[in-house]
């Protein structure tokens, strides 16, 4: 079994091994009230060879482009086992699942037309943000795109207070934070944002990076 490449990766490995069996249940209200519509936007217009980094339990599967060839990677074998059960839900031509650390992707340079992540960078600690971004950029061909769907700390006073109340729970359960500053890390990684827009008020943003 491949080993996590850093202490931050190791913490996430053990966390997601622990919660894999209840992960979908924990997220069920959000999945059907919010996330499913957002997943459609994440894959809109994509085709060809696609990397789904942080594939989790495979909840993106129904939204993969028809006839796409997808490799889904995740640090947790337990999450991947649950994803494997969802293969039949996808219109993709092929889905391959591999255990892999997004900060150390053991796949060839320029192997993909696009890479996507859904709520992955909000669980990556600061020291993994730039390595993960650089790895995604490495495996996507020139002219391809990287798309990230991420939570941010909202600016409105009420929403900001609500997220503060959520902080202890999401940190314990998912290792997540509203304050990962991923857009700053994109710039520091030497990458260029070609599009960013909020898709849920000022709470969730879709970010596209040009390759």
UniProtKB/TrEMBL annotation:
Assigned keywords, A-Z: Methyltransferase, Transferase
Pfam families tied to this protein: Methyltransf_25
One annotated GO biological process: methylation
Molecular function in Gene Ontology: methyltransferase activity
UniProt xrefs under InterPro entries: Methyltransf_25 (IPR041698), SAM-dependent_MTases_sf (IPR029063), Thiol_S-MT (IPR052356)
Ranges for domain Methyltransferase: 50-144
Protein known as: Methyltransferase, UbiE/COQ5 family protein
Source lineage: Bacteria, Pseudomonadati, Pseudomonadota, Alphaproteobacteria, Hyphomicrobiales
